[in-house]
């Protein structure tokens, strides 16, 4: 619900303003997207947090803010706009009642249902593992696709978060990835299993901050020309501060990131490089993909600054 | 350089922006000599297609002279000085879709494939000047444009045909042609085309070239219907007559054998209560289409006929007549045009004089008057059918 409202208010603020009857006010131009952003915070909190009762109360508080704002708006409107505002206020009042009920219930459950809560709290402290899978089809023979991946130093050309992979031996390598706020994560890895043209499996070694392992399989596609690439990655997410940093480093949607990585892998093998557009000129810089810049050419200064501009 | 940009809903603005540069090895930079305003630009301008940003350069129909090529473009494909028409879908030429000649479904050219995938299930090709959903590529209503995969898409014009004769090979001529080709036209066929805009006109001409017995044009603007009539097609004005009964009258009660929807989401007319229903759904953005033309085409088509959709749709439609479609054995075919597939054969048809693309041009304006151009085109003022902009 928060998600829907938030997206609507951010994506089509003018429509929301028109429906609510506040399209005559310049202030509403600022307020509507802000309220939308707030809704998204509620949604993110409710969907991801284990302490849903707290987030449910934030929604009640948000509703109270909305009702106050609407009351102020009604006092200054008449005719059609007033009618539309009254209708919207009625709807919000209904939602408030629902949110209040949900919040009260969630609070009661979290007080009484002690067993599951204690378990989930422990899981939060200790971290857990994250499995990611993704697959793509590349119009190249399996031997070629395998060979490109097996040269691990190629991985950073399409994997957004990898800075560098340096091979240190026949089966060993040193990996570094960028994390937010300039901190880097580094680890050593070894290939644990390989079948040329078919499969590569690897895992991190030593005391990696984020122990991880992966498998990539190369399967001939039914068309007799292409290769299906199936990737499985497993991360052990530690708890505490490091866990949080890791979660951030992977962004909001790690599955999406891995999908996009494989899309770039396909681009590199089929077309020779990562495709760039004016709105997304930096190719593999994941953090630069959202929000995008306008679809117009970069200035010389922007080009010079590169992806950090 | 000067470029026409999106500046918010129902607002375009010609601004000064940086010149384009080579970003990928297979890019070329083209100095644009002619570009056009397309009906599908209207969906962007009025906000029906999401993911537009203030400052996005519009335009996906353009041609010009190559002034720079990247190191990855082979000299036998393209050189500085070549005169080219640029197709609107950006296609890599190497993926599975391109191998099947489904260029507008290219798997590699949309850097925002993730967004596109969420909206459409699978990503589609990048398109010039056509929202961030289709890649965030700068468009061609500008003095210069960057053309990715310049060794795959652009068609070299080596004869002395004028810009006006070949410009529409970039989009609307192949689009209209594909609409007719998807109908699998037989010599006895009566073909009805919804929309007598530029794409509709070319769909009608193509249907005739492909051998249709009769071609019917459905629109409400008298000047558009007259244009179709001058080209030998039968006009039906939906503001004056009931379309379905007129079509039955014209076809001995069978209904048109083949129906082409060249309107898409710019449809303006519907029965009152359905139109009100659509309007409410659109206001809360739970329906993105204005589907009246498509519904009418399905209901009018003869049993066992083909409904070919080349009008652009963007998202979700309500009240789609599945019952009519299934129970009467209709075939529904559609697609963004795979322009690269049609450019050469259509260039030959132009050279042989079978199709005259210039017949639809009503206005030629300097690029700086793009805003005025959008205004008269959108509001169908001044008998505006097709505008060519000169940068």
Quick summary of this structure?
The complex is a heterodimer of chains A (309) and B (391). Chain A is α+β, with helices and mostly antiparallel strands.
Name the features.
heterodimer, A: 309 residues, alpha+beta, 7-stranded antiparallel beta sheet, 10 helices, 7 strands, 50% helix, elongated, B: 391 residues, alpha/beta, 7-stranded mixed beta sheet, 13 helices, 17 strands, 28% helix
3D structure, described in words:
- The complex is a heterodimer of chains A (309) and B (391).
- Chain A is an alpha+beta fold and 309 residues long.
- Chain A has helices spanning 2-11, 13-20, 26-48, 52-75, 79-112, 114-126, 142-150, 240-249, 254-271, 300-305, and strands at 128-138, 162-167, 172-178, 184-195, 199-205, 212-220, 227-237.
- A seven-stranded antiparallel beta sheet of chain A has the order 1-7-6-5-4-3-2.
- The longest helix of chain A has 34 residues, at 79-112.
- Chain A is elongated.
- By secondary structure, chain B is an alpha/beta fold.
- Chain B has helices at residues 39-45, 96-99, 113-120, 163-166, 172-181, 198-209, 222-230, 243-250, 272-283, 292-300, 322-327, 339-351, 370-378; strands at residues 2-6, 12-16, 28-37, 62-69, 83-86, 89-90, 126-127, 144-147, 155-156, 190-194, 214-219, 234-237, 258-261, 306-309, 331-334, 363-366, 387-390.
- In chain B, the strands form four sheets. In chain B, strands 3, 4, 5, 8, 9, 16 and 17 form a seven-stranded mixed beta sheet that branches.
- In chain B, β11, α7 and β12 (234-237) form a beta-alpha-beta unit.
- The A-B interface holds A 8, 11-12, 14-15, 18-19, 137, 139, 223, 225-226, 256, 259-260, 263, 266-267, 270-273, 275-281, 283, 289, 292-300, 302-303 and B 3, 5, 9, 17-21, 23-26, 47, 50, 53-57, 72, 92, 94-96, 99, 107-114, 117, 126, 129, 132, 135-139, 146, 148-149, 283-285.
């Amino acid at each position: 619900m928060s998600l829907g409202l938030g997206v609507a208010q951010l994506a089509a603020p003018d429509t929301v303003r028109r429906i609510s009857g506040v399209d005559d006010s310049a202030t509403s131009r600022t307020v509507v997207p802000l309220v939308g952003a707030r809704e998204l915070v509620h949604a993110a909190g409710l969907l991801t947090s284990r302490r849903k009762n707290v987030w449910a109360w934030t929604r009640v508080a948000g509703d109270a803010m909305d009702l106050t704002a609407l009351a102020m708006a009604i006092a200054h409107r008449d005719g059609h706009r007033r009618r539309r505002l009254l209708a919207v206020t009625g709807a919000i009042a209904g939602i408030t009642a629902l949110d209040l009920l949900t919040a009260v219930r969630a609070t009661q459950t979290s007080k009484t249902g002690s067993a599951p809560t204690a378990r989930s709290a422990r899981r939060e402290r200790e971290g857990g593992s994250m499995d990611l899978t993704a697959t793509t089809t590349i119009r190249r023979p399996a031997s070629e696709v395998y060979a490109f991946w097996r040269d691990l130093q190629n991985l950073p050309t399409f994997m957004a978060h990898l800075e560098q992979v340096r091979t240190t031996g026949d089966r060993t390598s040193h990996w570094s990835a960028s994390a937010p706020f300039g901190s880097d994560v580094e680890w050593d890895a070894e290939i644990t299993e390989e079948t040329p043209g078919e499969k590569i499996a690897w895992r991190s070694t030593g005391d990696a901050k984020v122990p991880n392992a992966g498998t990539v399989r190369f399967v001939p596609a039914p068309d007799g020309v292409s290769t299906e690439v199936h990737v499985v990655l497993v991360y052990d997410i530690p708890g505490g501060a490091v866990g949080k940093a890791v979660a951030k480093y992977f962004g909001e949607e790690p599955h999406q990131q891995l999908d996009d990585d494989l899309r770039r892998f396909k681009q590199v093998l089929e077309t020779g490089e990562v495709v760039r557009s004016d709105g997304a000129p930096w190719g593999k810089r994941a953090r630069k993909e959202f929000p995008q810049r306008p679809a117009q050419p970069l200035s010389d200064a922007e080009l010079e600054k590169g992806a950090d501009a | 350089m000067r470029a026409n940009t999106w500046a918010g809903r129902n607002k375009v603005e010609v601004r000064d922006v940086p010149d384009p540069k080579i970003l990928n090895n297979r890019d070329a930079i083209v100095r644009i000599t002619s570009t056009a305003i397309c009906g599908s630009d209207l969906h962007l301008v009025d906000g029906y297609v999401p993911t537009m940003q203030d400052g996005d350069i519009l335009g996906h129909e353009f041609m010009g002279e190559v002034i720079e090529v990247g190191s990855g473009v082979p000299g036998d494909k393209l050189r500085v000085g070549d005169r080219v028409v640029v197709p609107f879908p950006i296609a890599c030429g190497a993926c599975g879709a391109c191998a099947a000649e489904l260029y507008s479904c290219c798997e590699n050219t949309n850097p925002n494939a993730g967004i596109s995938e969420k909206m459409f299930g699978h990503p589609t090709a990048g398109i010039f000047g056509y929202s961030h959903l289709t890649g965030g590529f700068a468009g061609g209503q500008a003095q210069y444009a960057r053309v990715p995969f310049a060794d795959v898409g652009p068609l070299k014009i080596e004869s002395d045909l004028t810009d006006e004769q070949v410009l529409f090979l970039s989009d609307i001529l192949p689009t209209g042609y594909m609409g007719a080709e998807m109908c699998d036209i037989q010599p006895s066929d009566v073909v009805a085309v919804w929309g007598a805009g530029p794409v509709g006109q070319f769909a009608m001409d193509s249907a005739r070239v492909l051998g249709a017995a009769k071609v019917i044009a459905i629109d409400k603007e008298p000047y558009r219907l007259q244009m179709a009539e001058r080209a030998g097609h039968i006009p039906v004005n939906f503001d004056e007559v009931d379309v379905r009964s007129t079509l039955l009258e014209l076809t001995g009660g069978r209904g048109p054998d083949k129906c082409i929807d060249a309107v898409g989401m710019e449809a303006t007319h519907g029965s009152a209560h359905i139109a009100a229903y659509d309007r409410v759904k659109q206001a809360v953005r739970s329906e993105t289409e204005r589907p009246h033309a498509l519904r009418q085409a399905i209901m009018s088509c003869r049993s066992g006929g083909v409904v070919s959709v080349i009008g652009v749709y963007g998202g979700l439609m309500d009240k789609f007549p599945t019952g009519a479609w299934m129970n009467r054995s209709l075939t529904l075919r559609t697609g963004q045009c795979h322009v690269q597939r049609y450019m050469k054969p259509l260039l030959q048809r132009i050279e042989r004089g079978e199709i005259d693309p210039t017949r639809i041009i009503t206005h030629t304006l300097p690029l700086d008057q793009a805003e005025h151009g959008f205004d008269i085109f959108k509001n169908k003022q001044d008998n505006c059918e097709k505008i060519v902009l000169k940068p």
